[in-house]
Structure formats: structure tokens, C-alpha cells
Amino acid sequence: MNNRKLIFKDVIGCDYAKDILNKRLRLFYENKERHKKMNIKIDLGIILFGFPGVGKSELAKSCPGEFSSNKDLYFDEIDGSYFMGGIVGSSTKKIKNWLDNRMKIDLDTVMIIDECETLFKNTNKTNSVLTQERTNAFKRILDINVIGSKIFVIGTTNRPYDIDPAFHRRFKFVYIPMPNEQERVLHLKRAFLDIVDGDDLKLQILSKHTEDYTGDDFNELRTELFYKYPLNNGSKLDLNNSKVQIDLIDDILKCKSRKTSLNKGIKDFKNKYDKPDSIWDDAGIVVK
Fold this sequence. Notes:
With 288 residues, this protein is of the alpha/beta class. It is built from 12 helices and 7 strands.
């Protein structure tokens, strides 16, 4: 990327999520007073959820680049562990200090939280006093109406069912599905662009063997190729060579076998959320 910021075009797939992020963020920073007078509900944030490796974090981190032309937005990328504390009261203090600092700057803040379930944990599912304290501190921020008017949250999670119902009611939950066949061809092109010679038809044939592959899996496949075929001086593999094709398919199948323990999780996500005619409520729950 030559150190330039990621933008939406750099993220393969996720078209529905990109559209939602674009519309909701524009509602957040454009004509807020007008929307308020017209009683238009503005989401307090968006939670991107899906199976590990499908591109949730990459999409969230592309938002600063996508909206870089807007100088009135400040993007703050935070790992969920940032607000964790070892003693009672420490998490609340960290959250309050962060909020105080954000309110001092004359810009609207977009808070990007990776693994946000660590901060928004369902208090009914834990006996940890520290976890309950952390969740309740964020609930109080929601109650004072800072988020949505001055702060917009973009969170990512693999575990939407662990998030407290209070956040389900306030945030828009957006499901990121596994890559479809066309998107898997694009992932193959990206992973192999500088190390493989071959036409799109060969990549389409390979993509048929990569169902349930995520973007992370294609990166792993690229690494496997480097181990098997040390390439020097700009040399490339020839996809027209039948042995290379067989080796690639073999590596794909080996990667699939290593994912056996994850297959149930993939199926659970797909069975629950990946239905063409499904409608999700704001809690990310299938209602049709």
C-alpha cells in the first residue's frame, strides 16, 4: 500500500457493510441539527460481526482513509484491552479520562474498537466484578447521550452473542459473511499477484476449492507457497503447469483440514446468519 491509508476499495467484498458505514457515518457528521429537528434516529455506532478472518477489522481500519477528506472527524483506533484494569475502579477511570480528552477537542470522534465484546460484555453472563464495571461504565456514556452526538463507535467482534443487550438496542449490527466465489478469486489474485503467472480461468478453478476460506486463509496459502517454492530474482510460478496446480490444490485441502476444529463454528455462523432471505434485527438476530 506504500504507507498510504487503507480505503474501502482495498477491502475485498463487504459491500453491504461498506454501504451501511458510508450512510451512517454521513448521518453522524452531516446536518446533525437538521436530523434532530426532523426526529431522524442516528445510530450510536455500528458493530461489524462475523467469523474470524473475514475482514471486519480491515474494513473498520479503512474508515479513516475513506473519510480522510473530512477534516472535522477524528478517528481513534483502540484495542479492547486498552480499557481493562486489574483493580475495581481502574477501568472506569480509564474510560472517563479517554472521554474527557475526546470532549476537549473540537472534532467529532469515531471510536474504532477491535474485539469490542471485551468492553461490552453481557453482564448477565459473567460474575466478574471488573467486567461488569467496564460494561456499566460504557452504558453510562450511552445514557448521557455523548455517543451519537459527539462520538460514533465502530466495533468488531466474532462473538455478537456475548455483547450486552443495552448495546444491541443502541448500535446497528452488521454481519460480514464468508467470501463468495467471485470474492475468493479476488483474494487469490491479491495473494498471488507477484508470485504466480496464470489467467483468471485458472484462478476461478482454484477458487472452487476454497469454500469457507477467509482472507487470512489466503495469506496463509501464500506463505505455504513460499516455503514450497523459494522464488528468487522476481521469478514466478506458472499456473499452466499441472504439477503447480496439483500442489496448490493439495495445499488448499491441507489448510482446510487444519481448519477442521473451526468448521463447526463456520457452519454455526452460516446457519444462523448466512441466509439470502433473512432479515436481521438491530441485535444481529435472524427474525425471518
